[in-house]
């Protein structure tokens, strides 16, 4: 029997909303709201959460440290961007956060992105050279976490007598996750990371990418596991799900789509972003790019731009197709993230064989009597008909 997929969720640290490309029903990324999402996800049985990085996001390490005390089991996949700070400083951040969270830290390596934003962070290297820099960065970073000391006189990184005072809980270090579709990115993944992440492309394209990464890792004498980043629109019926997808972009105008397309094609040097854009080409004409795989999110959202849309049975079937080609982890999201975390857990988790945490089983056992919800009145619930 296939092991149930490992299911993560997303913490929307740049804000949340009910409509893409619109200012209606938006939510600011306040700590109060983000902690609501984290607490819900923790209770619902998700494995962990992804916290992104970027100029428009709340800082990922700080936010993870703030959310760790209000959660119990949740793991934190925190973005780490080489070049924004030294490897010694990131080693201290990572070691401390791993101890504060009692070993719940995972690290998501983000090498690429928008060159203009990277310049604002002090990173001026062209695309492929950023991976050479990242190799040296993680040589120092990993030595510090594993042994407490590091030295390197590299082309990009120089660390003389670097030390780390306290080790992380996880030995030799927290697991490293990474997503990158370029040749340089795949070479980096093959020699360095524990889990390779892909955005939600059609299964045949994902399979081709997995084969490339697996072969490259094998040449390095390593094995890599695989995850996928997807949005979800799950409803009780297919019709309801597709209506919700249409509603999500119902206030998105053509001018906003055109501006996003210009940004994706002219400002980003990400190969993965180009692959995402190729699925829809900035057009609403055909957004279902594979059965139940909808590219509407990518009309305006940078990065992961596809959603699985449908009933629990059809979405579970699509996820099993990804599992068959090697995917063992999903990082999901939905708009708004609080409500959709409940929908995915309540509707999709049972179809995937995932236990639903504290929400499993419905009402508390009322002395062995099965009950049905009666609206929450003072009279309590009703005994179910036998």
TrEMBL record:
UniProt protein name: Alkanesulfonate monooxygenase
Kind of enzyme, top EC level? oxidoreductase
Q: What does this protein do?
A: Catalyzes the desulfonation of aliphatic sulfonates.
Keyword presence, Cell cycle: no
Instruction: Identify a single GO molecular function assigned to this protein.
Output: alkanesulfonate monooxygenase activity
- Give the family, as the similarity comment puts it: Belongs to the SsuD family.
Q: Which residues form the signal peptide?
A: none
Tell me yes or no: is Oxidoreductase among this UniProt entry's keywords. yes
Q: Where is the Luciferase-like domain?
A: 6-328
Reactions accelerated catalytically: an alkanesulfonate + FMNH2 + O2 = an aldehyde + FMN + sulfite + H2O + 2 H(+)
Instruction: Please give the Pfam families that the UniProt record associates with this protein.
Output: Bac_luciferase
Q: Give the Enzyme Commission number.
A: 1.14.14.5
UniProt keyword annotations, A-Z: Flavoprotein, FMN, Monooxygenase, Oxidoreductase
The domain of life is Bacteria
Q: Which InterPro entries does the entry link to?
A: Alkanesulphonate_mOase_FMN-dep (IPR019911), Luciferase-like_dom (IPR011251), Luciferase-like_sf (IPR036661), SsuD_RutA_monooxygenase (IPR050172)
Output the GO biological process annotations, alphabetical, semicolon-separated: alkanesulfonate catabolic process
